[in-house]
Design goal:
The complex is a heterodimer of chains A (255) and B (423). Chain A is an alpha/beta fold and 255 residues long. Chain A has a single domain, classed as Rossmann fold. Chain A contains 11 helices and 8 strands. In chain A, the strands form 2 sheets. Chain A has a 5-stranded parallel beta sheet, with helices on both faces. Chain A has a 3-stranded antiparallel beta sheet with strand order 1-3-2. In chain A, helix 7 (131-140) links the parallel strand 4 (121-124) and strand 5. Chain A is globular. With 423 residues, chain B is an alpha+beta fold. Chain B has 3 domains: 55-128; 148-245; 264-393, Ribosomal Protein S5, domain 2 (2-Layer Sandwich). Helices cover 42% and strands 8% of the residues of chain B. Chain B is built from 15 helices and 7 strands. A 5-stranded mixed beta sheet of chain B has the order 3-4-5-7-6. Chain B has a two-stranded antiparallel sheet with strand order 1-2. In chain B, helix 11 (306-319) runs parallel beside helix 14. The chains are: A alpha/beta (255), B alpha+beta (423). The interface between A and B is large, with 65 and 56 residues.
């Protein structure tokens, strides 16, 4: 799942920001996917525009209720976030929720596909109030969380930081991107795709699937956790069902 | 390399970026071609038997295998060495135990090294080489622990657990408030006073991870927060995992019961030491305050200096037994005699040394100190427990551990330098 060379070719943002050659020699686990009995099915799902019905998950009214539209003060605007701004009210920027919805659906769809293909999803956040909930969400979906200080080289120098060769995550899911710029850089360097909520003061360039939205309110973050959790679970459930249909054993059963 | 214009409109949708992964794989051999092949065709692998094991897991398995091989080799060497050793020592090679081996090594390779770890040893390889951590991921390389990617999964897992307890206690507090309990009873809070938090090394041992200062600090802060919750007694079990009883230094002095001589007078004997000197003191009750040192003279005669006399008499004055007991003291310079309790082994000259003219004698302060300690110890049997406590607090029962410092090369004494002037 990790070989992102194609992704770089497909995505203008990714192509622009990530220099060639950085990710050379990084371990890839394509063979696992290749041996997977579900592969034809996975391709079939990719043809569908909304295979996991994530469009129904996101509604503008709900986003509004959860204050996703609230940005920072005008002065804090990151110029790269300009296209996603709807306007300003009393100097506070308002995010265009029409665009946010579109991006959120794309992001959720991507997350669900990764989950369906048994990719490793790493939830990252530096929002202290909700850190526990992010970890809990990861545990409940049997995925992974990192809500602690990110030491540089955690992934790019993983042999040293983990003391052994490890399988790198297949997706970085940034519940908040603001405090995790180092982590976002590393994901980009390693050609690992990332999904991230970016506020008006955040640089969205290194995130593969940026979702413009408020990332400071506790209830907004809880809303994101709910959404992403649902997407992951949908992907996993579908995988389980399809595996049962095809008669092959799942990873959990095998191990 | 890639021609974006060739991509179908469907592919441009974000969801289909996943495809790119496979597209890259399928075309990795033909990257130079300008035409994009049909990426929607599933990739067919020729070798169906290809291993379904992740690289990380494979690396772990290889490492485990080499480690096992290494250990078995070392084990063989150890077994052979054991037999050689048995032959040298003339023992039965079949029945040699680890204690025998240690004994033989100490006999054959005697070492004066201070640090026991630095001395020669022969132990089974599993005791010498560190155990390897078990694999933390399954055969696809997916870790078992949800917090694995923090590189301190166990440590942060414990913090996560602790915080879920804080949340549970908060909920309980809210429920109690609804019931009308505003201020919980003091017993609901866990009493931290008799405990100490575990230290950094112990925490690292628990987590099997490298714990830095900042992590330990953060851990203690978090745990203290849990412990200071008004209902923390509910989280008692988790707190006790990271607490150890406070180390209390006990100064319990064993007090022996008084003995009685033929005349029926109570008496007690005790020993004391100071610097290189040792003393045995016999205190007899129902006395008149007579003192006898080395069976020759009284304290006043034996110690010309006032300060030494004060030292010797101070315990008696402290417990209020001045002029009420008789004291008989013997000073020893030889350790074996002290063990024996009498001056049987000294030559006459050595014995004379102890009672030679006062002006020529050295080490009177040490003699007085040794007598003082022995006397204090003996007096413990004559007084109440409360008095013994007071004696301990005033330092009468504490041994003065100071010893003469050795002379160093290049120095006149222990520290004093030879006079030297720049030429």
């Amino acid at each position: 799942m990790v070989a992102m060379r194609g992704l770089r070719a497909l995505d203008p943002i990714f192509r622009r920001t990530v220099p060639f050659g950085i990710a050379r020699g990084v371990s890839t686990d394509v063979e696992l996917a290749a041996n997977d009995a579900l592969l034809p099915k996975a391709y079939a799902l990719l043809r569908e525009p909304d295979a996991f019905k994530v469009k129904d998950l996101v509604s503008i009214s709900e986003m509004m209720e959860n204050r996703m539209h609230l940005g920072h003060k005008k002065t804090l605007l990151n110029p790269f976030m300009k296209p996603f701004i709807y306007g300003s009210r009393f100097d506070q920027l308002i995010i265009d929720l029409e665009q946010s919805r579109e991006h959120m659906v794309k992001a959720l769809n991507f997350v669900a596909h990764i989950a369906y293909n048994d990719g490793i999803i790493l939830l990252i956040s530096r929002h202290n109030e909700t850190a526990h909930e992010v970890e809990k969400c990861a545990m409940e979906c049997k995925e992974f969380a990192h809500v602690r200080p990110w030491y540089q080289g955690m992934l790019t120098n993983c042999g040293t930081s983990f003391g052994t060769e490890i399988r790198l995550p297949d997706l970085g899911l940034f519940i908040t991107t603001r405090g995790s710029q180092t982590a976002a850089n590393e994901f980009a360097k390693l050609m690992i795709p990332s999904v991230g909520v970016v506020d008006t003061d955040t640089d969205p360039r290194l995130i593969t699937y940026p979702v413009p939205g408020n990332d400071d309110s506790t209830e907004t973050i809880r809303y994101y956790i709910r959404l992403f959790k649902e997407a992951i679970l949908r992907g996993k459930e579908r995988r389980k069902r399809d595996l049962e249909d095809s008669g092959s054993k799942s990873r959990e059963v095998l191990s | 390399m890639w021609n974006r214009a060739l991509l179908s409109p469907v592919l441009r949708d974000g969801a289909h970026k996943v495809l790119g992964v496979v597209a890259a794989r399928a075309n990795s051999s033909t990257q130079s071609s300008t035409k994009l092949e049909n990426v929607l065709e599933p990739m067919v692998r020729k070798d169906e038997k290809a291993q379904k094991i992740n690289r990380a897991m494979r690396a772990y398995l290889e490492r485990a295998q080499t480690q096992e091989k290494f250990l078995s080799e070392k084990k063989e060497e150890f077994e052979l060495g054991k037999r050689h050793l048995a032959n040298i020592m003339g023992w039965d090679p079949e029945e040699i135990t680890q204690e025998n081996i240690d004994e033989a090594i100490q006999y054959l390779l005697p070492s004066g090294l201070f640090e026991p770890k630095a001395r020669p040893m022969m132990k089974p390889p599993e005791m010498i080489f560190a155990k390897q951590k078990l694999a933390e991921f399954d055969y696809t390389g997916r870790p078992h622990n949800s917090l694995f990617y923090t590189a301190r999964g166990n440590f942060y897992g414990r913090l996560h657990e602790a915080f879920s307890h804080v949340l549970r206690l908060n909920e309980h507090q809210l429920a109690m408030r609804k019931k009308g309990v505003r201020t919980p009873e003091a017993a609901e809070q866990f009493d931290l006073r008799p405990y100490d938090w575990i230290n950094q090394g112990e925490l690292a041992e628990l987590c099997l991870e490298r714990i830095k200062d900042e992590h330990h600090d953060y851990f203690i802060r978090s745990m203290t927060r849990l412990a200071e919750h008004p209902y923390s007694n509910m989280a008692r079990e988790i707190l006790l995992k990271y607490l150890k009883p406070k180390q209390v230094e006990t100064h319990e002095q064993e007090i022996l019961p008084l003995m009685h001589d033929e005349a029926g007078n109570p008496y007690m004997e005790a020993r004391g030491e100071r610097k290189s000197l040792r003393a045995i003191v016999k205190v007899t009750g129902n006395g008149t305050g007579e003192t006898l040192i080395n069976k020759s003279m009284s304290v006043d005669e034996y110690f010309p200096e006032l300060k030494d006399r004060l030292q010797v008499m101070f315990p008696l004055q402290f417990v209020g037994l001045l002029n009420k007991v008789d004291v008989e003291a013997t000073i020893f310079k030889r350790h074996d005699e002290y063990e024996l309790g009498e001056m049987a082994k000294s030559t006459e000259e050595e014995q004379k040394e102890l009672i030679k003219p006062l002006e020529l004698r050295k080490g009177q302060a040490a003699e007085a100190g040794a007598i003082r300690l022995a006397l204090s110890r003996a007096l413990c049997s004559f007084v109440t427990e409360e008095d013994v406590k007071l004696m301990r607090l005033s330092g009468l029962l504490t041994k003065d551990k100071r010893k003469r410092e050795r002379k160093k090369p290049g120095k006149r004494g222990a520290r004093r330098r030879y006079p030297w002037r720049k030429r």
